[in-house]
Amino acid sequence: MTGILLDAQREAPPEPELPPPDLDLATTVRSFAVAVLARTLEVLDGRRPRTQLAGAVADPVLAQITALLQHGIVGGNADCARLHRVHVQLRSPAAAEFFGTFVRGARARALAGSLERREVRVSPPGVLPRRTRERWVVAEFTIL
Fold this sequence. Notes:
By secondary structure, the chain is of the alpha+beta class. The chain has a single domain (23-143), classed as Nuclear Transport Factor 2, Chain: A (Roll). The chain has two helices and four strands; from the N terminus they run H-H-E-E-E-E. It has helices at 23-45, 59-70, and strands spanning 81-92, 95-104, 107-121, 132-143. A four-stranded antiparallel sheet has the order 1-2-3-4. The model has no long low-confidence stretch (mean pLDDT 84). This is Archease domain-containing protein. InterPro entries: DUF6459 (IPR045596). It holds the Pfam family DUF6459. Residues 1-22 are annotated as: Disordered.
């Protein structure tokens, strides 16, 4: 049998250099994620009103949380949910993904989702001119 012997000593092409991660941005995003996820768990437990999530979560996420509360799928347990771990992966300066765990009683559950920088209304409804600011918002959220 004859074949071709490949030169295993060839050098691979150099990897393109990636810029170092922005540690200040990563710290800011993770701090936001921890705060809003802890607040979300408190809302799901019935310890906070869902209105406290306004501006921090996207409208579809708020609708999803409202549906969970209306159908009694979450909460109703004497134990409060506690955020256990949160990991954040930056995708760009305006997008990130998170995943982590929370504990309620003896049971641990996973959660995951995405964060985005968006224009968020900061003036009360009915007040003109309407003021907005760019802030981090939970764009997707799921409990696994």
